[in-house]
Amino acid sequence: AQSVTQPDIHITVSEGASLELRCNYSYGATPYLFWYVQSPGQGLQLLLKYFSGDTLVQGIKGFEAEFKRSQSSFNLRKPSVHWSDAAEYFCAVGRNTPLVFGKGTRLSVIA
Amino acid sequence: GAVVSQHPSWVICKSGTSVKIECRSLDFQATTMFWYRQFPKKSLMLMATSNEGSKATYEQGVEKDKFLINHASLTLSTLTVTSAHPEDSSFYICSAKTSGVYNEQFFGPGTRLTVL
């Protein structure tokens, strides 16, 4: 069965510090992987996606993610976090089926 | 491009009434639309998948008679919460998918439903 695990429920980082949000997946075939961000009371915004090719993908707002097949991971990174990055982040997997979402990681940013 | 809208963005209704939520793909044709429900501080739970012109496919545990889904055109899907009760209060999000090769979904901004 398809599943996504985001091990960290809540992460707090200082503004300007680097960030890594973890995502592990279970999928029977080569997955399509996504990272979404959600601000309170808002819908989901796509940060980046991986379909095939280069395993390091660049997204919006300075985010990047690396697909590691051997580790079944698709971790999200940002070198320098801004206060406006505080939000909920969801990793998702899916190919020809509805997306399966992780439970999300809430990011707090402190001064 | 690839914008999905939802209307209304929030709605308050009395218990026992029905509420309709619209999901529109504004600049593309969506062969498939999805409806999700999100409880506070929780992830998205897929409720149903709707394909244009056919009946929706509901996930296990979702009452199809309570959550009526209609996908009458390639740009519009509606979710009607019938005889709403306070436990139906939630954040409902739709997404739309094109018929392209890649399974990329575009999400609407969500509808906050509060049932009194």
Question: Layout of helices and strands, plus pairs?
Answer:
The complex is a heterodimer of chains A (111) and B (116).
Chain A: E1 3-5, E2 10-14, E3 19-21, E4 24-26, E5 32-38, E6 44-50, E7 56-58, E8 64-68, E9 73-78, E10 87-94, E11 100-101, E12 105-110
Parallel strand pairs in A: 2-12
Antiparallel strand pairs in A: 1-4, 3-9, 5-6, 5-10, 7-8, 8-9, 10-11, 10-12
Chain B: E1 4-7, E2 10-13, E3 19-25, E4 32-38, E5 44-51, E6 57-58, E7 67-73, E8 76-81, E9 90-97, E10 105-107, E11 111-115
Parallel strand pairs in B: 2-11
Antiparallel strand pairs in B: 1-3, 3-8, 4-5, 4-9, 5-6, 7-8, 9-10, 9-11
What does this structure look like?
The complex is a heterodimer of chains A (111) and B (116). Chain A contains no helices and 12 strands. Chain A has 111 residues and is an all-beta fold. In chain A, the strands form 3 sheets. In chain A, strands 2, 5, 6, 10, 11 and 12 form a 6-stranded mixed β-sheet that branches. A 4-stranded antiparallel β-sheet of chain A has the order 3-9-8-7, with no helix packed on it. Chain A has a two-stranded antiparallel sheet with strand order 1-4. Chain A starts with a strand and ends with a strand. The relative contact order of chain A is 0.34. Chain B has 116 residues and is mainly β. Chain B has no helices and 11 strands. In chain B, strand 4 (32-38) and strand 5 form a beta hairpin. Chain B starts with a strand and ends with a strand. Chains A and B meet through strand 5 and strand 6 of A and strand 5, strand 9 and strand 10 of B.
